[in-house]
Design brief:
Elements: E1 7-11, H1 16-27, E2 31-36, H2 43-48, E3 51-54, H3 60-74, E4 79-82, H4 97-125, E5 128-133, H5 146-166, E6 171-178, H6 185-197, H7 203-217, H8 223-235, E7 242-245, H9 251-257, H10 260-271
Parallel strand pairs: 1-2, 1-4, 2-3, 4-5, 5-6, 6-7
């Protein structure tokens, strides 16, 4: 008798970490629902066996439509990988609040809005696992990344609360904190970076920040490394609350252990 494949929804599956995760889980025998704003970049995943869905996390109707389609196909998911997100960069004084809200609409409210729609069926069945993809930016930030980091800090807090709230129902919540990963984040953030570089107040600072980011990103890890970490978080019988992985992820420990004044000097030396 053929065993039913475990089902998983991976958001932000059109590129980077999401695409690598969806592909790896397909190879491992999962039934993968891959969701992203655009379907075309996921053609290779579809050819591999993924079931594709269009998703705009910032749109409530889009979230509801996806949740309804998932319910029709499997009822309750075995796993949810909340990977979709985006970021813009710039000084806190000058970045428009509309752009900051846009970051939170996707990385926080959109992510939790979708999770709220999918959790009830998982809770009622009494098992399931949720992996929220955060970042080392959810533990410490650099100049110019305040709003993006704030959204990831928020995700860390929400994930901790969700883990405690759902434990008694048989659901497990895990946070994955990638370090510097070779994705298209730089391309997405490019327009906001250009605007920041042109600022007559913070332009010099942002040029130094950009140079610092470019240096550390030279050692960026492959998205596959994060995908493997996510798979481990999904399949380990007793997963840890958090998994760090990738280039510079060890810096989280240093940021926690060092006095703030020393940590600030280290960051300033590299980026200011």
């Amino acid at each position: 008798m053929q065993m039913t494949k475990p089902s998983v929804l991976v958001t932000g599956a059109s590129s980077g970490i999401g695409a690598a995760t969806a592909s790896l889980l397909l190879d491992r025998g999962w039934r993968v629902f891959a969701a992203a704003r655009r379907l075309e970049p996921m053609a290779a995943l579809e050819a591999q066996g993924a079931e594709l869905f269009q998703l705009d996390l910032s749109n409530a109707d889009s979230r509801s439509d996806l949740a309804a389609q998932i319910a029709n196909r499997v009822g309750a998911l075995d796993a949810l990988v909340n990977n979709a997100g985006f970021g813009e960069v710039g000084p806190l004084e000058t970045m428009e609040l509309e752009r900051a809200r846009a970051i939170f609409e996707v990385n926080v409210f959109g992510l939790m809005g979708l999770t709220q729609l999918l959790v009830p069926a998982m809770r009622q069945r009494g098992c399931g696992r949720i992996v929220n993809v955060s970042s080392i930016a959810g533990r410490w930030v650099t100049p110019g990344s305040g709003w993006y980091g704030a959204s990831k800090f928020a995700l860390e807090a929400l994930s901790d609360a969700l883990r405690l709230e759902l434990k008694s129902f048989g659901l497990q919540v895990v946070i994955v904190e990638p370090g510097l990963i070779a994705t298209n984040f730089g391309e997405i953030a490019f327009p906001s970076m250009q605007k920041a570089l042109e600022c007559n107040i913070y332009g010099k600072m942002m040029r130094n920040v950009r140079a610092g980011w470019e240096r550390v990103y030279q050692g960026a890890s492959s998205p596959l490394l994060v995908a493997q970490t996510i798979e481990n978080a999904l399949t380990k019988p007793k997963p840890a609350a958090r998994y760090r992985c990738g280039h510079q992820s060890i810096s989280v420990l240093a940021s926690e252990l060092l006095p703030t004044s020393i940590w600030d000097r280290l960051i300033s030396a590299q980026m200011l």
